[in-house]
């Protein structure tokens, strides 16, 4: 499923973070390998993103959802 959300948290050292949106209650876990940006793959807390997500096969860092194909979008 594709959604828009806001980056809640990003850990540059470990390469993962959390995206919030209505469709993923409790947050959606994202790994740096799924971030589609030039150069160093990271996200900025508070930034709007578009992303595809799926239900995790098992809890990932206590999150029920995982993001795939994440890219920043212009703030609306």
Structure, described:
Strands 1-2-3-5-4 form a five-stranded mixed beta barrel. The two termini are 21 Å apart. Strand 2 and strand 3 form a beta hairpin. The chain has strands at 2-11, 16-20, 28-31, 48-60, 63-72. With 76 residues, it is an all-beta fold. It contains no helices and five strands.
The Cα radius of gyration reads 11 Å
The pLDDT mean sits at 92
Strand content: over 45%
In the predicted model, the low-confidence regions spanning at least 5 consecutive residues are: none
Strand order of the largest sheet: 1-2-3-5-4
Largest sheet: 5 strands, mixed, barrel
Helix content: under 10%
Sheet/helix structural class: mainly beta
Order of helices and strands: EEEEE
Number of helices: 0
Key structural traits:
76 residues
List the helices and strands and how they pair.
Elements: E1 2-11, E2 16-20, E3 28-31, E4 48-60, E5 63-72
Parallel strand pairs: 3-5
Antiparallel strand pairs: 1-2, 1-4, 2-3, 4-5
Brief rundown of the structure:
This protein has no helices and five strands. With 76 residues, it is mainly beta.
């Amino acid at each position: 499923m594709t959604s828009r959300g806001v980056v809640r948290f990003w850990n540059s050292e470990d390469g993962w973070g959390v995206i919030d949106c209505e469709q993923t209650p409790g947050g959606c876990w994202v790994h740096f390998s799924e971030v589609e940006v030039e150069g160093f793959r990271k996200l900025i807390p508070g930034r709007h993103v578009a992303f595809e997500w799926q239900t995790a096969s098992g809890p990932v860092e206590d999150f029920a959802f995982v993001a795939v194909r994440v890219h920043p979008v212009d703030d609306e």
